[in-house]
Amino acid sequence: MNAPTSKSTPTLPQPHHPYKVMALYKFASLPDVEALKSPLAEFCCARGVKGTLILAPEGINGTVAGAPEAIDALAEFLFTSGPFGNRLAGAEVKYSFADTAPFLRMKVRLKPEIVTLRAPQVDPNRQVGTYVEPEDWNGLIERNDVVLVDTRNDYEVGLGTFQRALDPHTSSFVEFKDYVEKNLDPARDKKVAMFCTGGIRCEKASSYLLSQGFEEVFHLKGGILKYLEVTPPEESRFKGECFVFDERVSVGHGLELGSATLCRACRHPLTEADRRHADYHEGISCPHCRDDAAKHEAAAERQRQMDLARQRGLAHMGDAAATDAQQRRQRKKQLADQSRQANKD
Q1: What is the CATH classification number for the domain harbouring 201?
Q2: Number of domain units in the chain
Q3: Would you tell me how many other CB atoms lie within 10 Å of the CB of residue 304?
Q4: Residue 199 has pLDDT above 70, yes or no
Q5: Most CB within 10 Å of its CB: which of 22, 143, 151, 314?
Q6: Where does the record place the Rhodanese domain (predicted)?
Q7: Given the DSSP bridges, would you call strands 191-195 and 106-110 parallel, antiparallel or unpaired?
Q8: Contact between residue 14 and residue 97 where contact means Cβ atoms under 8 Å apart
């Protein structure tokens, strides 16, 4: 199968938002990942770009955000002018915008895989399923001879999914192999269509199914995010919101900010119904972790610190918190110096 021909061009021109978000992945041969890590991290930090990028010998994956001009510069660095050369050409790239910073810091991580499946026989650079454009997706999944599978984890599916999609009820992508073994049969399931958030998990999932003897495997090109970006709401077969791995928590059609929030104790995404539940206590607990006292205690202390910081007009997390802490240290030092000078006098 040929790789997708996506271009790294902006898809949502919304200049009135101060932060531009770039989500990308690319399966490519990167045997020199250790040498690539520092230049990439330094480039991002010098321009105030924050988020997480994962590098592995099989490619790159991640989401970052920053000022629009900084993200544009990073795109050029990754795809044209930087140490990657042209190895990331044709990467799957999606842009969106945010009013507040989605990330608190910048991290470049080295891992064995950019999406963990632990199936050595899988090689998306060699074999993947058939890409289906978002505008062709509805026609495919409405066919009676197609088995539709959501390859995401249970907490993601809980926020939204496609009509009639099967939920593997996995807590991590590694468990997808067990789901296939127990629930899908290449002799029975002749046509399997799959989808995920941005497309990367389906690259590996489709490659895995083909390695297990499945004949026709399809996956949504660009994932749910691309579908929500280009599909009119009245034509959409996706119900709910799409979970994203940053402080936005979820997005809806047009990639507009969704209504979901995170439980600060267990990090489970919460719907409006979850927040109305008797076991929900803001910043402390939710219906998904109601029996985990240890998480509640830690979350309660964190909430207490946040409330104290708010009362004092200080930040609690991120760069603003670091600035506040530095200013407090400088003030203490000044007071100490003044006290020593007064004692000398």
Answers
A1: 3.40.250.10
A2: 3
A3: 12
A4: yes
A5: 151
A6: 142-236
A7: unpaired
A8: yes
Residues 139, 233 share a domain: yes
Which residues lie closer than 8 Å to 180 by C-beta, 6 or more apart? 208, 209, 212
Of all residues in the chain, the percent with pLDDT exceeding 90 is 68
- Which is more confident, 137 or 14? 137
Side by side, the strands of the sheet bearing 19-27 are 92-98, 19-27, 59-66, 50-56, 106-110
> pTM of this prediction?
0.75
The 3-class secondary structure across 301-320, one letter per residue, is HHHHHHHHHHHCCCCCCHHH
Active-site hit among 44, 196, 242, 289: 196
Q: Are residues 97 and 42 in the same domain?
A: yes
Distance CA 192, CA 217 (A): 5
Could you tell me if residue 246 is inside a domain? no
Looking at 212-345, list the stretches that DSSP marks H as alpha helix, in order from N- to C-terminal side: 223-230, 272-276, 293-311, 318-344
Tens digits of residue pLDDT in 99-125: 888 898 999 999 999 999 999 989 998
| H-run or E-run covering 180 | helix 176-183
Could you confirm whether 196 is annotated as catalytic? yes
Distance CA 154, CA 168 (A): 7
Per-residue model confidence (pLDDT) at position 17: 83
Question: Which tokens is 230 given?
Answer: 């280009």
Q: Per-residue pLDDT for 302 more than 70?
A: no
* Count of alpha carbons within 13 angstroms of residue 184, beta-carbon side: 32
Task: Kindly state the tokens that stand for 19.
Answer: 């932060």
Task: Examine residue 299 and state whether it is found in any structural domain, yes or no.
Answer: yes
Greatest Cα pair distance in the chain: 92
Dihedral over Cα of 53, 246, 198, 13: its sign: negative
DSSP state of 159: T
- Of 244, 140, 230, residue with least CA distance to 192: 140
Q: Model confidence over 32-44: pLDDT tens digits? A: 999 999 999 999 9
> Residue 193's CB: how many other CB atoms inside 10 A?
24
Per the structure, the complete domain to which residue 102 belongs is given by 19-110
pLDDT tens digits for 128-159? 999 999 999 999 999 999 999 999 999 999 99
Cβ neighbours around 141 below 10 Å, total: 20
